[in-house]
Specification:
Layout: H1 4-12, E1 20-26, H2 29-34, H3 36-49, H4 54-73, E2 81-87, E3 92-98, E4 105-109, H5 115-123, E5 127-132, E6 136-143, E7 146-154, H6 165-197, E8 201-205, H7 208-217, H8 220-223, E9 226-230, H9 238-267, E10 274-276, H10 278-286, E11 290-296, E12 303-305, E13 312-314, E14 328-330, H11 333-343, E15 347-351, H12 353-363, E16 366-370, H13 376-381, H14 385-390
Parallel strand pairs: 5-8, 8-9, 11-15
Antiparallel strand pairs: 1-2, 1-4, 2-3, 5-6, 6-7, 10-16, 11-16, 12-13, 12-14
Helix pairs in contact: 3-4, 6-7, 9-12
Length: 391
């Protein structure tokens, strides 16, 4: 997966007016075996070419040629998904093989189309898992459905004694001191792991006594990342740890998405700081007021964009209602809206499951939290007061 530094570099990429080819391809084993991903790529190129001018088609052909040359050298890409960004005049070439499937998509625009990348990073948080006992520790990271064991160590911890009196008290203190040293070492290694991998959440696993003491030793920066504390044996397999981590991740993600959608729906309307619905959300994007764009994962809409004032609208409208210029078709309004939000330094959240059902019903799959509230007069002047009020 691309690092956040790489994503930010792509966000800042300035092609000086030249276009960037952005391709997302499903390269699961069956697609690699049959070579269907190459056919899909070239079909997407042809589809995009039909919407371009003659000089732009020549540029797209050049970039597609670079990709096909890479395919010739790499017939079996690793991973399940393939993401490519190419702009030969600006020496841009980025290939990212990801461990999860992606939807086939191609864009040829003046900026890299990062919507699919952000969708992946939004869907998959990076978890750290600390499996601890009083003398052993195993540290893992979990990302995009895969687990990696980073480190395992065992420290010498003297056992307890059945002897009574002062001897027992001394041995007990000695035992507790070594346990403390061991758990402090776990904390130090977790802190080092956070600096290297910058995980979003931490799961602590193990017997009650060890996990309770470890929690008390965590610094604030780690304590705030604790997502769950679970019981697990020191001999738990990587797959058992992964299954539990993914279960926790799914629940956290689902709960957060439902809360976000409920917040957007409640705040939408006159005087609120949210929109709910395609028309008001696109309006908010046009005036640069979107703080957080909320989109149903996989939502697609055909629409139009004005090349003059950049107004986005759904459906087929040949003339821009804002400036009167001729519009051009946009085959995936969701991707274009995501790109526009990023240009405005907004955040993008993709929702799934129950949250997606709620947003599809209440807002056609699109909503936004705004930077500034919209008074009734502003809504009505944009012709969307009724739509906002209905939500």
């Amino acid at each position: 997966m691309l690092s956040w530094d790489q994503i930010e570099q792509l966000e800042r990429f300035d092609g000086g007016g030249t276009r960037v080819l952005s391709a997302y391809l499903d390269v699961q084993p069956e697609a690699q075996l049959t070579g269907s991903y190459r056919v899909e790529f070239n079909d997407l190129v042809k589809e995009a070419s039909d919407r371009l001018t003659k000089p732009e088609r020549a540029d797209l052909t050049r970039e597609a040629g670079r990709v096909n040359e890479w395919f010739d050298r790499n017939a079996r890409p690793s991973g399940l998904g393939l993401i490519i960004f190419s702009c030969a005049p600006r020496d841009l070439w980025v290939v990212d093989c990801v461990p999860v499937a992606v939807r086939n998509h191609l864009a040829f625009e003046t900026k890299p189309d990062l919507a699919g990348v952000l969708e992946l990073t939004d869907e998959y948080e990076r978890f750290a898992v600390a499996l601890v006992s009083k003398d052993k520790a195993r540290l893992f990271t979990v990302f995009a459905g895969a687990i990696e064991e980073i480190e395992a160590f065992k420290d010498l911890v003297p056992g307890k004694t059945d002897a009574g009196g002062a001897r027992q008290s001394h041995v007990q203190r000695h035992h507790e001191l070594h346990v403390l040293w061991h758990l402090k070492k776990v904390v130090a290694q977790l802190s080092k792991l956070r600096r290297r991998r910058n995980f979003d959440r931490l799961i602590i696993a193990g017997p009650l006594e060890a996990t309770s003491e470890l929690q008390q030793l965590l610094p604030h920066v780690l304590k705030t990342r604790v997502a769950a504390v679970i019981r697990a044996g020191a001999d738990a397999t990587n797959q058992q740890i992964l299954d539990k981590a993914l279960e926790i991740e799914r629940q956290i993600e689902a709960d957060g998405e439902v809360r976000l959608v409920n917040e957007v729906i409640e705040m939408a309307g006159a005087g609120g700081r949210a929109t709910c619905g395609i028309a008001p959300t696109l309006e908010a994007l046009w005036i640069g007021d979107v703080r957080v764009l909320v989109v149903v994962d996989g939502a697609t809409q055909n629409g139009n964009e004005c090349p003059n004032c950049r107004y986005l609208q759904r459906g087929s409208v040949p003339t821009c209602p804002k400036c009167g210029a001729a519009t051009h078709a946009v085959h995936d309004l969701g991707h274009r809206a995501v790109g526009r939000a990023l240009e405005q330094s907004g955040r993008v959240e993709f929702v799934r499951g129950r949250a997606a059902q709620q947003l599809s019903t209440a807002g056609e799959g699109f909503a936004a939290l705004l930077r500034y509230p919209w008074p009734i007069g502003v809504l009505e002047s944009h012709g969307i007061g009724a739509a906002a009020s209905d939500t």
